[in-house]
Amino acid sequence: MDLPKLLQHNWQLILFIAFCIIAFIQIFYYLFFFIRLAFYQNKKKDVSQTHAVSVIVCARDEAQNITLNLPGILVQQYNSTHEVVVVNDNSYDESKYILEELRKQFRQLHIIELTQEAKMIPGKKFPLSIGIKSAKHEILLLTDADCVPATEYWIQSMQDAYRPETEIILGYGAYQKLPGILNKLIRWETFHTALQYMSYALAGIPYMGVGRNLSYKRSVFFRHKGFSSYNSIPGGDDDLFINMAATAKNTRINTDKQSFTLSKPAQSWKQWKAQKSRHYTTSKYYKAKHKFLLSHYAISQILYYPLLVASCIFYNWQISLCIFSFRYLLQFLIFYRSTKKLNEHDLLPWFWLFDIWMFFYYLIFSTSLFKKPAQTWK
After folding, report:
1. What Cα–Cα distance (Å) separates residue 25 from each residue in 28, 57, 293, 298?
2. How far apart are the C-alpha atoms of 148 and 173, rounded to whole Å?
């Protein structure tokens, strides 16, 4: 058998088979993973219990964000014992004085002033470690200085997600809804990321969380020796720690809308690209099984539309469009339920366009996997 001639005479069929394989991979991810979030329901506890909570916020030159966002954390409606620990990491602006004024009004606010840089530990891991070690309570609730709780019941909702076996809660960190296509793309990517990490967690394969809205027990942090495994990497205080510490049994998600946080999105393409590039420079350190699943999904997303077009042109457009239609309807069902669950339903009419955009998104940010991470977190 002359293989080159066989391939030459059947290349149209080979293109179609390749398209079918890629479409099958995509459909598998939607039916095995993403459908879990779409139909997930937060189960009510038979007995509600409140826990003592330590909220931890790290800030560097965040005077404006502290003024705008920290009061939203300090006025939370939570009647049980709690504290808000703010680690002011070598700030040169007026953060110190703003925090001191807020402490006069809120007794639960505790301020840690760092005046020296940690050698050989770039990024936010050192100030965050100091905050965790200084925390008084077992339940830790982490967020960023540029985030504000979406409701005054954020602490209540996040701590209420704990069960006896739970050690980690993955929350949703949304972005503010503003005019413009960039805002929609940022929010779609944020939703799409949450669709993945929450669905994987529901499938028993948790792989990351977001520092904008994340909770875990203090004992988990010390059991895994904090961030010592990757101290030399600037990022990873959220996703790499969860990648290391999360298991099928000790991790839960929280989709209660009262548990969400809101952040101000990037104001320019350049700023957003820099933010996302920082994230992807840490994803190369994920466990092998997570990299396998994430990379195959990304590759299938890149190949899907080119192979769809090629199959329609060179093989059989009717069959190709039938496969496309099945995937499209499946996507619509899952995105309809998931965007509604995460309060991003205004993005649904655009999902077909965003799905095509993901082809370009993965191509643009794939180069970040090979870049050296920046050595600062601000």
Report:
1. 5, 40, 11, 11
2. 10
Q: How far apart are CA 204 and CA 365, in angstroms?
A: 27
Mean of pLDDT values over 273-302: 88
Instruction: Name the least confident of 112-126, 309-323, 332-346.
Output: 112-126
> What is the CB neighbour count within 10 angstroms for residue 109?
19
Rg (CA), the chain: 22
Q: Rounded to 5 degrees, what are φ and ψ at 264? A: -80, 125
For the whole model, what pTM was predicted? Answer: 0.92
Please give the structure tokens belonging to residue 106: 């809120």
CA 192 centroid distance within chain: 9
What pLDDT is stored for residue 7 in this prediction? Answer: 55
Q: What is the 3-state secondary structure (H, E, C) of the chain?
A: CCHHHHHHHCHHHHHHHHHHHHHHHHHHHHHHHHHHHHCCCCCCCCCCCCCCEEEEEEECCCHHHHHHHHHHHHCCCCCCCEEEEEEEECCCCCHHHHHHHHHHHCCCEEEEEECCCCCCCCCCHHHHHHHHHHCCCCEEEEEECCEEECCCCHHHHHHHCCCCCCCEEECCEEECCCCCHHHHHHHHHHHHHHHHHHHHHHCCCCCCCCCCCEEEEHHHHHHCCCCHHHCCCCCCCCHHHHHHHCCCCCEEECCCHHHCEEECCCCCHHHHHHHHHHHHHHHCCCCHHHHHHHHHHHHHHHHHHHHHHHHHHHCCHHHHHHHHHHHHHHHHHHHHHHHHHCCCHHHHHHHHHHHHHHHHHHHHHHHHHHCCCCCCCC
CB 37 within 8 A of CB 202: yes
pLDDT category at 9 given cuts 50, 70, 90 is low
Mean pLDDT taken over the chain = 91
Domains of the chain and any CATH numbers: 18-39+289-370 (no CATH), 53-272 (3.90.550.10)
